[in-house]
Every structure is written in C-alpha cells, then in structure tokens.
What does this fold into?
Amino acid sequence: MTSVSPEEPSARITTPERPAMLGPAVRALTATEFNTAMVHLYRGEVGRANTWRMRLDGTTNWAVLTTGATLSFGFSSEKNTHVMILVNSLLIFYFMYIEARRYMFYDLWRTRVRLMETEFFAEMLTPERPDELENWRQLLASDLLHPRFSISLWEALGRRLRRNYIWIFAVLLISWCVKIVIHPHSPASFADLFERMRIGPIPPWAVLLTGVLFNSFLIVLAISSPERTSDETASRQETRRRLTGDRLA
It folds into this structure.
C-alpha cells in the first residue's frame, strides 16, 4: 500500500458547472399592452389619491369636533377655566401636523395622476401634438423607482392652515378673549382682567406672551409658504417640474 506524500497535491474531485439561470427574455410591449398597463396604473394611483384625500377629511373632522366639545365645556359653567381652550389649541396644531403629513402623501399620488392625464391621455386625444419637453415616461419611471415628496412639510403645514385650520384657530382665539373679558361677567378693572389670564402657578404675563408667540408663528407660517399653483388643475409644465429635480424649492 503506497502512501501519498503531503508535498504532492491530492487529487481533486471536480463537478460539472451548473448552467447559469437566465430570466425570461425581455421584449418590447405592444401598443395595446402598454395602453392596458397605463390604464391600470392610472386607476391604482387614483385609488391611492382618493384614499389619502379621505384621510385629510378625517383629521379636519377631529379638529372641528374637539373644538366644539371644548367650547361647550368651557362656556357651560363659570367655574370652568379658560385653560381648556389653550390646551385645545395645541391639540388642534397636532391635528394639523398629522394632516400635513397625509397631504404630502396625497400630493405624491396626485402628481402622478396629473402627469398621466396631461401626457398619456391628452396625447391620445391629440396625437399630432409635438413633444417639446423631455420624455414623460422617463419622469414617471424615475418617480416610481425613487419616490420623493413634491412639497416640504413646511409648505404642507401652510396649505392646510390657510385652507382649513386658520378658521379653527380664529374661533379659538376669539372664544378665549370672550372667556377672559365677559364670561361669566366683565372684570372691574384692567388688573382684574390681567389676573384672569393666570393658570395656576403660571403668571398672567407668561400666558399672554405664549399666546402672542403661538399666534405669531401661525401668521408667519401662513405667509411664508405661498401656493405655487392651483393644486387640482396643475399645468403640464408645472406637473413636469414637480417630477424633476426642482421638487422642494
């Protein structure tokens, strides 16, 4: 029996290589297949947009119901303090923040829907229209592969504030002033009026300063985030611009 020297390479068992797994061959879509795919994509994006649109109404309803319940409780008895109105203002701002986040998702799906309306369906109605801008299919494909919000959170907060919540905050501010000034009776002097603003150990000047800063912030938010276009009827150029690099400018 012969022994194998450790210096000599041992025999290696070789196995046949496995064939590489190849995917199905990719072929170009026919016109009918492309149109069918685009129609289903359009229906899906419309469904997403409608879902997030209804969620916007939900947070607005929460804010209205909460405000109504708070004011009813605050003015139901002279013993009920005005602090409930101030706390409700913070709660309404939180609702507005939630709604702004939902609005950002809604704007994402709505922009895609508008692009397909202005490019795909409009082109089917007027096929002779020259395409003076870049290929809209590349814009849509890029947004599907790398989705990004078309607006910032600051802009979304400003839009929801101007459209819905500015009226709720105005009602709360007026109600707080009425609660301090005339409910349950008018104060005898300015010192008495100022003392009514006190909240437990918090001095009246701190409460007044906080209210001024809070409402000033809302005014700045409403002014510093102007609307760039009509949301529901964005033009072809505006829709393309939203899907290009200039998204959060």
In short: Confidence is low (pLDDT under 50) at residues 1-13. The chain has one domain: 32-242. The chain has seven helices and no strands.
